[in-house]
Structure formats: C-alpha cells, structure tokens
TrEMBL record:
Descriptive protein name: NADH-quinone oxidoreductase subunit N
Domain NADH:quinone oxidoreductase/Mrp antiporter transmembrane intervals: 2-148
Gene from which this protein is expressed: nuoN_17
Species, as recorded: mine drainage metagenome
UniProt cross-references to InterPro entries, sorted A to Z: ND/Mrp_TM
Its membrane topology: Multi-pass membrane protein
Length: 212
C-alpha cells in the first residue's frame, strides 16, 4: 500500500522523465504485491494460481511497456534530441508525430487507461482484491491510480499541446530499425489490451504448473 502511495506522490513531483518513471515503478510494483498478497489468503474461493497469474500478467505488461518507454527515450537521445526533462518533449507531436504516437500508447498503458494493456492488468488485480473482500484496498488503489495518471498525461500534454523546444525542433531523423521495433511494442500494448485472454491463459497455466 505504501509503495503505491509514495511512488505516485514522488513521481508527481518530478520534472526529469527517467526519474519520474523510476518512482512510478515503485507504485506499479505495489499492484503486483497486492495480487500476490491475495493469493496467500485461504478460504475465500480464490485460488493461488489465479492471484499469482494476475501478478505475473501485470509484471509482463509492465516490463513490456516500460522497456518500450525507455526505448523511445534512448532512441531520441541517440538521435541528438535531449530526452531527460519532461519539457524536452515539448511539441514532439509536431516534430516527430510517429514517435509521439508510440510514446502516447505506452504512457496510456502505464496510466491504466483503456483500451491499453495496462488497464486490463490493473483491472485484473482489482478484481482479485474484490474476490478476497478487500473493498477498501480497491478504493485506495483506484484513487491513487487516478492521481498517478496525472504525471503520465502531463507528458502527453507537453508533447501535443506545447510548442516545440529548440532541441526537439532540430532533432535528426534516423533509427529505422529501432523505430519499427518500438512501433511494434506500442502496437502490442494495444492488442494485449483488446485481447488479453491468450496471455492471461498462459500466465495462469504457468502458475498452475508451478504450484501443483
């Protein structure tokens, strides 16, 4: 519980994008721990396999999304574009609309906004908590998720509604292979949000085989 609250509050205060993502990781791990905790509760009709598979699904989605997000940051930095401060992304939608779009997909997923995979991952954890009767934890997690969405949406606002910075306006083009890979990553978080069943089944089978 503390990790979700402290991670979100610390991330809101950051202007350095990498540091913001690092603090948000603390909050994201809090959701995984909530699912794991639910799997340790007996006598509630919820199997450990279901709870642990929810935690595993969340981790897979989070790792996939975070790798893509840092990939965009590193790609832009490699191309001569300063990619440290949130303000460095000002007007990116005008200077590089494709990468701005990929980054938007990834940030929406991290924020847990539908129809992206991060939404389903959070929804799965909240459903597990409801089955174990922890309604107050669901309310707490939802409220902090809404607060946490602010700092992700702030980056999107800067990309689309702020004028381009001097550095972003002069950024060089390139990195075709990396751009294609990151585009697939962004597409994956959308597809897994729309059709999460296959990955969720794999996670459940993996946990069931491990526990039995």
């Amino acid at each position: 519980m503390l990790s979700i609250g402290l991670g979100n509050l610390a991330a809101i205060a950051q202007t350095n994008l990498k540091r913001m993502l690092a603090y948000s990781t603390i909050a994201q791990i809090g959701f995984v721990l909530l699912a794991l905790l639910s799997g340790m509760v007996n006598g509630n009709g919820l199997s450990a396999s279901t709870a642990y598979s929810g935690a595993m699904f969340y981790m897979v989605i989070y790792v996939l999304t975070t790798l893509g997000t840092f990939g965009v940051i590193l790609l832009l930095a490699r191309e001569g574009f300063e990619a440290e401060d949130i303000r460095d992304f000002s007007g990116l939608a005008k200077t590089d609309p494709w990468m701005a779009g990929v980054m938007t997909f990834l940030l929406f997923s991290l924020a847990g906004i539908p129809p992206f995979a991060g939404f389903y991952a959070k929804f799965e954890v909240l459903t597990i908590l409801l089955y174990t009767g922890r309604v107050w934890l669901v309310v707490y997690a939802v409220l902090l998720s809404v607060i946490g969405a602010f700092y992700y949406i702030r980056v999107i606002k800067v990309m689309y509604f702020d004028p381009p910075s001097a550095l972003s306006a002069t950024r060089a083009a390139g990195g075709g292979g990396a751009r294609a890979l990151l585009s697939l990553n962004g597409l994956a978080v959308l597809i897994l949000g729309l059709m999460p069943g296959g990955l969720m089944t794999l996670c459940y089978q993996a946990m069931a085989n491990t526990l039995h």
